[in-house]
Target: Phosphatidylinositol-binding clathrin assembly protein LAP-like
Amino acid sequence: MSTFIRRYAKYINEKAISYRSVAFDFCKVKRGKEDGTLRTMPTDQLLKTLPVLQSQVDALLDFDCTANELTNGVINSGFMLLFRDLIRLFACYNDGIINLLEKYFEMNKKQARDALDCYKKFLIRMDRVAEFLKVAE
Model:
């Protein structure tokens, strides 16, 4: 159990670091097309915020357990807490990427390169999210 508790603690630590960096909790921000925080964010701020969100998603996905390990109550509880956060983080991450792609052709060359890098990382993380959700199933 200690391995999974350490992994969960790593996620909580990363969540605190991201809160310190961007001054809001990604799990509690408004989401959606009209008034979503990441959907209406300006390009400069978005390019600084997305890497923070990416590192928080990475820390969450590092929990990495199998369905057989979820028989333990402590591991199962930690997994369920992470699952709820993952759904919210994924919604924010998706809003941010949509906003980034909408503004892509208005960016300068450096911003466009950074945006493309963020999008490539997004695609890799989505495969890992799919694996996490298969375990949750």
Remarks:
- The chain has a mean pLDDT of 89.
